[in-house]
Amino acid sequence: VFSKQAESNKAEVLVRLTSVHEELAKLTLRADTSEGTTMDQARHLQGLEAKCGKLQESLLRVEGQVSADEEAAKQRSLQVQEQIRENAAALASAKDELAES
Q1: How far apart are CA 91 and CA 101, in angstroms?
Q2: What is the pLDDT of residues 18-44, one digit of tens each?
């Protein structure tokens, strides 16, 4: 009787051990897959960070160019205003000369 009980316990332990071993194999596979996915995500994130850095550099260049263009447009506007004043003064002077003659 004792040996049948021992054999039964031994068989149960072997079944449980096999089950634990299979579960461990599944968990190991999941961990390996997860690690691979994590590494892929990390590489993707690094790529995105590099692109973000390039975009920021481009944005700074564009902002600098826009600022320079705005300044040039402002200067051009001031030049045109001054030219208009000079032309208006010249027209007024010519009008006065015509009126005097």
Answers
A1: 15
A2: 999 999 999 999 999 999 899 999 999
